[in-house]
Amino acid sequence: MNKIQRMCVILLILLSFSSCEVVEGIFNFGVGVGVFIVIAVLAIIIWIISRFRK
User: Fold this and answer.
1) How many angstroms separate the CA atoms of 26 and 6, rounded?
2) Is the confidence at residue 1, as pLDDT, over 70?
3) Whole-prediction pTM value?
4) Cα torsion for 47, 48, 53, 54, to the nearest 10°?
5) Sign of CA dihedral 20, 22, 27, 29
6) For the chain, which residues make up each domain, given as ranges?
7) How far apart are CA 46 and CA 54, in angstroms?
């Protein structure tokens, strides 16, 4: 596929979704990443506290 064909396919895919679906997908991905970061930070804090208790 050349560059123009790829751009046409991407444009067709983007236009087939409503804007709300795209925003919802991005938001859900962001929530997942946020939950992962919070769990990672809590795990690091618990690990640091356990190191000082020894």
Assistant:
1) 22
2) no
3) 0.54
4) 80
5) positive
6) 20-54
7) 13
Q: Report residue 42 as tokens.
A: 């809590």
CA dist 35 and 22 (Å) reads: 20
Structure tokens at 1: 């596929």
- The identity of residue 7, as a single letter, is M
Q: Which two three-digit tokens encode residue 11?
A: 């444009």
Q: What is the pLDDT of residues 31-53, one digit of tens each?
A: 889 999 999 999 999 999 999 88
Q: Which residue reads 């751009």 in tokens? A: 7
Measure the CA–CA gap between 53 and 16, rounded to whole angstroms: 57
Q: Residue 36 is encoded by which pair of tokens?
A: 């992962």
